[in-house]
Specification:
This protein has about 220 residues and is an alpha+beta fold. The chain has helices at about 10-15, 30-40, 45-55, 80, 135-140, 145-150, 155-160, 195-210, and strands at about 25, 55-60, 65-70, 90-95, 100-105, 115-120, 125-130, 170-175, 190-195. It has 8 helices and 9 strands. Strands 1-2-3-4-5-6-7 form a 7-stranded antiparallel sheet. A two-stranded antiparallel sheet has the order 8-9. Strand 6 and strand 7 form a beta hairpin. The longest helix is centred in the last third of the chain and has 15 residues, at about 195-210.
Length: about 220
C-alpha cells in the first residue's frame, strides 16, 4: 500500500476501538484495496484512502450504517461509486438501512464542495451534515447517529437490524416522507434489497420533483 508510513489507519483503528457504537471492520481484499487507491487517486494519508486500503467497509451500529471501503460481499466498493456517471457531481460513501445515503459533494449537490451530505427517505433531498469525510467518520463513531436518525428509528430496532445482510434494508410503510410515516413505531416494516429501496425512492423523488435531486441518485 502506498504511503503506508504516513497512513492514518492506526488513528482510525483507535477511533474504532473507542467508538460509541459497535463497528464491524469488513475484511479487505488487498488487490481491491490497491485498485481503490489508484482508481480514486488517494493515499493512506486521508481517512477515505485508508479505509479503502484496509477495509472492505465498516458496518456501524448493528449494521444500520454501512461505510464503503474497497468492497465486500453485499457492499459496493468506493471504486465502483467513483466510476458512475455522477462521480464528478458527488461520491457516495455510505448507505444506511433505510435507503438513505451519504456522499461527498463534488460540486453537483449544491451544498459545498468537499462536504459530506445526506439524502434521506424522509426529505428526498440532499443536505449537508456540516463537515468533510474525516469529520463524518468521527461523528459516526462518536455517537452522532442516534440524534441524527431520531424518530426514523423504532423501539428494538437494534435487535431487528443486526440480522440484516449488507445489501438489505428496511422498507417502511407508510414511508418516512409521508405525514403518516413520521413515527417509525407506527409503521409496518419489511426487509428488502437496498437496490429496491433506492429505486423506489428515486421514483418517488421524480414524481414529487424534489429539487431535481432524483437525477443525482
Amino acid at each position: 500500500m502506498s504511503n503506508a508510513d504516513e497512513s492514518v489507519w492506526p488513528a482510525l483503528l483507535r477511533g474504532i476501538e473507542e467508538a460509541q457504537v459497535d463497528v464491524e471492520v469488513l475484511p479487505v481484499d488487498p488487490v481491491r484495496g490497491r485498485a481503490a487507491l489508484e482508481g480514486l487517486q488517494l493515499t493512506e494519508r486521508s481517512a477515505l484512502g485508508s479505509i479503502a486500503a484496509h477495509a472492505g467497509g465498516l458496518a456501524l451500529d448493528t449494521r444500520w450504517l454501512r461505510i464503503f471501503g474497497s468492497g465486500s460481499p453485499g457492499l459496493p466498493g468506493l471504486a465502483e461509486q467513483s466510476s458512475g456517471a455522477t462521480s464528478q457531481s458527488h461520491l457516495v460513501v455510505a448507505f444506511d438501512a433505510l435507503g438513505g445515503r451519504f456522499a461527498i459533494d463534488g460540486g453537483g449537490l449544491g451544498v459545498a464542495a468537499g462536504e459530506v451530505c445526506y439524502w434521506g427517505p424522509d426529505t428526498l433531498a440532499w443536505s449537508g451534515i456540516g463537515g468533510g469525510y474525516s469529520e463524518f467518520i468521527a461523528w459516526a463513531l462518536g455517537g452522532g447517529l442516534p440524534e441524527f436518525y431520531g424518530t426514523l428509528r423504532w423501539d428494538d430496532w437494534q435487535d431487528e437490524t443486526r440480522s440484516l445482510g449488507l445489501d438489505q434494508g428496511w422498507s417502511l410503510y407508510p414511508p418516512p416522507f409521508s405525514e403518516q410515516g413520521q413515527d417509525a413505531n407506527s409503521v409496518s416494516r419489511a426487509v428488502v434489497p437496498l437496490v429496491e429501496l433506492h429505486s423506489f425512492y428515486a421514483d418517488v423523488a421524480r414524481q414529487f420533483d424534489a429539487g431535481g435531486t432524483e437525477a443525482q441518485l
